[in-house]
Every structure is written in structure tokens, then in C-alpha cells.
Write a structure and sequence with these properties.
Layout (H helix, E strand, L loop, with lengths): L9 H4 L5 E2 L3 E5 L7 E9 L3 E6 L8 E9 L9 E16 L2 E13 L4
Antiparallel strand pairs: 1-3, 2-3, 2-5, 3-4, 4-7, 5-6, 6-7
Length: 114
């Protein structure tokens, strides 16, 4: 038997649990028009999300995030709450159609709040 502990799993390293949630998202980064993408979340947590986007985004890229969350997560027909925040790309992987982009979110607030 080895005295070296096993590395923690990705789930154990997370600060908060992730929950499956598919909602529309818009990300803005850079200054060119093509630096805006529309996609969907695959899962979310208190500190991050996995986004499914049409194109990859480089790790370390800072972005503005716009997301529409259902006010009542148990009722997908409920009115949405538009949120805006800042995020940094922490990981990304290309997929057959687009990219899976893992982001760390900060300063997520309702649009129109101060």
C-alpha cells in the first residue's frame, strides 16, 4: 500500500455543487463583433457554470455574462430574471459542435440593480 493520498476528484475540488440547468446565455469578450456568442448553460453552481458555445474561448479570457434564469427553478414557465456578471474561462474543450467552456463567475447581479 502506498502512503501517497489519491488526488481529489473534480467534484471534491469544487467549492459548491453543480446542478444541471439549461438556460440561454450571452457572453461578451474582446472588442470585435465576433467576440460575442450565444449559447446555453449545461450546469451551474454558486461560483461557476459550464457553457455550451458555438466556438472555443481561450482559457484565462475575461468576459461579461448575460443569463436569464427562471425566477422559480422548479417551474420552467415562470418569468425569467435577467442577470449580468463577470466571468473568467477556467477550462474549455472542443466538441463535435462548438465548445464546452467552464467559467468562474463573479459579481452576478440582476440587470437593472445597483
Amino acid at each position: 500500500m502506498s502512503d501517497v493520498p489519491e488526488a481529489p476528484s473534480a467534484q471534491e475540488r469544487r467549492r459548491a455543487p453543480r446542478y444541471p440547468l439549461a438556460v440561454p446565455v450571452k457572453v461578451l469578450y474582446g472588442s470585435a463583433p465576433l467576440d460575442a456568442q450565444f449559447g446555453v448553460t449545461a450546469d451551474v453552481s454558486a461560483h461557476g457554470a459550464l457553457l455550451l458555445l458555438p466556438r472555443p474561448v481561450r482559457i484565462g479570457t475575461e468576459m461579461v455574462l448575460r443569463i436569464s434564469l427562471p425566477r422559480n427553478l422548479g417551474d420552467r414557465t415562470s418569468p425569467t430574471l435577467d442577470m449580468r456578471g463577470f466571468a473568467v474561462v477556467r477550462r474549455q474543450s472542443e466538441r463535435e459542435r462548438g465548445a464546452a467552456v467552464g467559467i468562474e463567475i463573479s459579481d452576478l447581479t440582476p440587470v437593472g440593480s445597483t
